[in-house]
Structures are given as C-alpha cells and as structure tokens.
Design goal:
Length: about 425
C-alpha cells in the first residue's frame, strides 16, 4: 500500500505538469482491491504489447456513491473504475460509460477467454433498456451476502434464517453491515419467504421493483432488532468477531474469507453461511467512464486484469473471488480437505464435483436462491431515509464503547505519529 501511495503521488505530479495525457492511465478503484505489484507489471506489459509507455495514477474510494458523484457531477477524467452492479446499471442508463472495444490486435483477448459465462449472464440482468451491458462492463470481483459467525458460540442451525437477528440468545453479539441496500435485500426476502415459495412474487421483483410498503416492512423489522444489534458498522464487525467480542456479523462472503483466515492466526474459528430464505449475488465490474482520456490503455488494463495469472495474484491479495472461470483458475484453488461441490455453473460441466472452499465459490444450491440488486433511481430516497431512521434508533452501549475506543486509539495514533514523524495505515475494502 505504501508503494501504491508513492506511485500515486509521483503520477499525480506528472499528470499535473504534463499535457501528455495519452501516456497516463487514471484508475479509480476500491480500497485494497489491487495487489500493488500488478501496477508495475501492467506498465511493463503494456509497453511490450503496444510499444507505448504508460504511467498509472491510482486512487481509491470506499463507497460507490463517492465514485459516482465525481464522475456524474464532477466529470472527472478517470480512465478505469470498478463500481458495483447496481451502479453500473445507473451509469449505463445515464450515459456515463464508453463501450469496451475488445480488439487487442496480436494481444490475446483475456476478457473473452477468461471471464466466466455465468457472470456475463448475470451482467445481462442489469436493467439498461435497449443497451447491452456486456458492451460496457466486465465483471470482476463477486460474492454473496450472509453471516460470518463463531461456531463456538452460535448454533449453525439458528443461522439458516435471517430471523436469527431476533434471537435473544445472541443479544448484543450481532453486527450488521452499514449497507442499506444489502440489508434491505436480505430482510425483504425473509419477510416475503411465503410469497416467494408460493410463486406470487419473485426475488428479482422484490429487489428491482421498490415500494414504500416493502420499505416500511423492512424498517419495522429492523426497529424490532435494535436492542439485539451491537452496531451498524462500516468495517469493524469482522474484527470484533476475531476478538470474540461479537459472534455474528451480517456481511459479504469475501469479508467472511478474510475474517476466517485472520481468526485462524489467533486461534479463533469463524465460518460463513447463507440463510435458506435467499440472498443476493453481487459483483463489481470494470468500466470506462464517459470522460476518460486514455481509452486505449483502459481497455488493455481491463484485459490484463482478466488474465488468469493476474487474477490469481489479485484474488490472493484481496481475499475475494473474481470472474476468471478458466481451468487454471479452478486448479489453483482445489483443496482436497474441502467437501466436493458442484461448480459447473461457473467453471463448466467438468466442475460438477470439485474439492474447493465454498467461501471462494458458493455452491450451486446457494446460487439458486440468490438474486441481483438493482438501482432504484429516484426511489432510492425511500431507502436512504429509512436507513437513516434505523441507524438513528440503534446505538447500543457496546456501540458507544467501540466508538470511544476508536477515538482514543485515533488520538493516541496522532500523538505517536507526531513523535515519530511517520505512520502507516491499511484500509479494508468496503463494497
């Protein structure tokens, strides 16, 4: 991360002092979504493939809306960004993206040969009118939403329903992600589980056709659990589970893998589960914004990131799964200690019984009960307003303790940094 920041600072100075914009590639990406050595690898590879030099200017964001505002309102000239599915949907509808042409001359097309057809089909589910979203975006990282949990304290059977949030056994030991759309999408599937089973409504309809009635139903439920939940958090929930201060975290699968691996280092066991009522499948994807200045290098960068070796390198760093569906990708993650599962939906028919970590790739049965989230357009205000009321009503004693502890730590860090005249930090990716 330090190297990325140094590259960023140097490249920004270059960008500010030079009109040679065609040799600068501006990337705007999620925090900790890039293994830093890939930046230099791409610059070298691009020159080998095209005979042209390029310098990457790399910046990061923590929420989709920050990125969107800079492009939609600020007309920033980023060449490559990596928004989430529903934001890609909005950007296409509002004419904020350029098509990703895939003519790379003698260079192999890793987008075509590497990206799993499964995610390309999910990409087509975006509601973009007559516009084909596969011409404007390439899926990259992806996963599901469920519960990270500590099996020492939590009965796995209890987690087969989202309604575990109301189970008094776990009062003040539950953390919920501060992500309105993700939380709404899970709770409405629980509340409408009977209608889904009866076929009177589909998951896709619930997540793409907003109504005040459904928003009110979810708000009522969330108000009921306000004394149960230790806090709505941006990124500290999984850390609290590692420290065993919490037992359950409603979270993303990628964070589940990260938390499990980190917990193992301190002798704590964590696991991840998707409740039976259904969940969401999400993906972040590469796009080229409308105001990009170096479209050629942007296309090559997206292609480069879809090559299997680069995909593996970045997956191992980030902890999330990406869209690469090649046999080499599958072989890299085979683990005989895992139970066999059917991943034919992602890797093809030959992967109908493979030993692989289900936290990396959800089982076919889990995928069957997952739907995609969508942009609500102007109706998003209903969701934002509801979420503000819910969070405003939920501030448990533990939340204040945690916030107080964070503030104390921040003050101490500032004092220490002034003494030592140096500091380091590492953010965690937040979808």
């Amino acid at each position: 991360m330090k190297r990325i920041l140094c590259i960023l600072a140097a490249a920004l100075m270059v960008a500010g002092c030079s009109s040679d914009r065609e040799h600068i590639l501006k990337i705007y990406n999620w925090s900790d979504y890039m293994e830093e050595s890939l930046i230099g690898d791409f610059e070298k590879w691009y020159e080998e493939q095209t005979g042209e030099k390029v310098k990457i200017v790399y910046q990061t964001f923590d929420i989709n809306e920050t990125m969107l505002s800079k492009i939609e309102k600020g007309h920033e000239d980023y060449d490559v960004v990596c928004p989430s599915d529903y934001i890609i949907e909005r950007m296409i509808r509002y004419d904020l993206l350029l098509p990703i042409e895939q003519d790379f001359g003698e260079t192999p097309n890793y987008i075509k040969s590497g990206v799993s057809p499964y995610l390309m089909e999910r990409l087509k589910e975006l509601k973009t009118g007559d516009v084909d979203p596969t011409q404007y975006a390439v899926p990259y990282m992806w996963g599901t939403v469920g519960f990270i949990f500590n099996p020492k304290h939590v009965d796995r059977e209890d987690l087969k329903t989202w309604d575990v949030l109301r189970n008094h056994k776990y009062e003040d030991k539950i953390f919920v992600k501060d992500a309105a759309r993700d939380i709404y999408s899970q709770i409405i599937q629980y509340l409408k589980k009977d209608e889904i089973a009866a076929g009177t409504v589909t998951r896709e309809e619930l997540l793409s056709v907003p109504s005040q009635e459904n928003v009110d139903l979810v708000e009522n439920y969330l108000m009921q659990i306000k004394d149960q939940v230790a806090g709505y958090e941006a990124d500290f929930g999984k850390d609290q589970l590692i420290l065993e201060r919490g037992w359950i975290s409603l979270n993303w699968s990628g964070d589940g893998r990260w938390a499990r691996d980190e917990a193992e280092k301190v002798g704590v066991t964590l696991d991840f589960i998707v409740p039976d009522e259904g969940s969401t499948i999400w993906f972040d994807g590469w796009v080229i914004p409308k105001y990009a200045k170096n479209v050629k290098a942007a296309r090559y960068f997206i292609n480069f990131m879809c090559e299997t070796g680069n995909s593996i390198k970045n997956c191992d760093f980030v902890g999330y799964s990406n869209s690469c569906g090649t046999p080499e990708m599958l072989a890299n993650y085979v683990d005989e200690s895992c139970e066999p599962q059917d991943l034919s939906y992602f890797f093809g028919p030959e992967a109908d019984s493979v030993h692989i970590d289900p936290l990396l790739y959800p089982t076919k049965e889990v995928i069957a009960r997952c739907a995609l989230e969508h942009d609500w357009g102007e109706d998003s205000e209903m969701l934002i307003t509801m979420w503000s009321r819910v969070k405003g009503s939920n501030a448990s004693a533990l939340t204040y303790v945690i916030i107080g502890g964070i503030l104390v730590a921040l003050v101490a860090a500032v004092v220490l940094s002034r003494r030592n005249k140096k500091h380091s930090s590492r953010g965690k990716k937040r979808r």
